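User: Sequence in, structure out. Go.
Assistant: Echoing your sequence, followed by the structure tokens.
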Amino acid sequence: MYEPSQGAIFLDDTPFARVPAGEWRTRLAGAFQDFFRFEFSAANTVGLGDVARLEDRSAVSAALDRAGAGDIVARLASGLDTQLGATWPSGVDLSFGQWQKLALARGFMREQPLLVILDEPTAALDAETEHALFERYAAAARGDGPKQDGRITILVSHRFSTVRMADLIVVLDGARLAEIGTHDQLMANRGQYSELYGIQAASYR
């Protein structure tokens, strides 16, 4: 969105400014704490994450599985064909957490994104559910499951049980970069991350 004021950005060996914007957008995916409740069929509500495969039921089901949201659709009377949204006469409304899980599934529709941004996408879920979900996702992204595709995932979260699985952790204090490193490095530094991690961990004991 912005030209860098210093340095340069490359996508593999290609200067980023020479990458066609349309092509780059097809390799992006994301899910956010602030999401829109698309009142379509359950299938289309998820499928919008990759419009080219909007009607691909197998792709939608795979995205639901990646988001741990398959159980939500399984409980709907008409499954993927269920009309969502209370504003429709026959529409089914969902809880905030259920809507958020479908939004997360929408973010997982693209199977080979180069950049995935997950900004507090499971804020309505409990810490244990969030951790299990991202543990599965991290395993797949690292190549423990499907073949590694070189993607970068940026995860924004205040839950340290989830953050600790990241390869690189960036600690922000307002607009200032406070610390950077792996979980073990930051714990050994006994700085802001270590202090906050200890406080949060104590609340679960």
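User: And one key feature?
Assistant: The radius of gyration is 19 Å.
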